[in-house]
Amino acid sequence: MIDLKQKLSSLLAEEVSIQERLQKICAYLSQEISYYNWIGFYFRDGEKEELMLGPYVGEHTDHTRIPFGKGICGQVAVSGSTFVVPDVAEQENYLACSLDTKAEIVVPIFKDAKNIGQIDIDSHSIDPFTKEDTELLEWLSQEVAKIL
Ligand code: SME
User: Fold this and answer.
1) Which segments constitute the GAF domain (predicted)?
2) What strands, in cross-sheet order, belong to the sheet with 103-111?
């Protein structure tokens, strides 16, 4: 986990655009963690109650805009709390991106105490996320907020 964090920190410090840095973060997590099968960022669209898809790695998704309250992402936009879904089949308010997705974790990103976006990870395994994943991704969310 320490090595992962070191590498993530160095990617965040690269002298390339923010979009490129976030894209590299997605690619790195996808490469390093076998059960992270779709990794992406969503950001709030200005003051609208809507999320826009940012950099991601994984299958194409139709959910490029998600209204607040809709799906797991939309719920985190409202709650501001990490949402771990061990089995997406048990969620009624869920937006399917891929039939292969079995589990999801969404971690909010706060900038100046405002919930401005999130890290979204889908897994093809059931119940793969541990408290270490939550800890890593909440740490990453704080590090990402620093470069925004
Ligand atoms: N499953 C998410 C939608 C985004 S995709 O996973 C890329 C949700 O329910 O909000």
Assistant:
1) 17-147
2) 65-67, 50-57, 38-44, 114-123, 103-111, 83-85
